[in-house]
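A reminder from the course coordinator: this example appears on the midterm review sheet, so study it carefully.

Given structure:
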């Protein structure tokens, strides 16, 4: 049984990882223009 707070934290982690990936590809896009 996962505590609710831990579950929320994990969800937030996934979100920030996704944002980091998006930012990295966005940066690459700008570099290649």
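Designed residues:
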């Amino acid at each position: 049984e996962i505590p609710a707070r831990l579950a929320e934290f994990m969800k937030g982690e996934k979100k920030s990882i996704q944002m980091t990936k998006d930012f990295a590809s966005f940066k690459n896009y700008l570099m290649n223009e």
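The chain is about 90% helix and 0% strand. The chain has one domain: 1-32.
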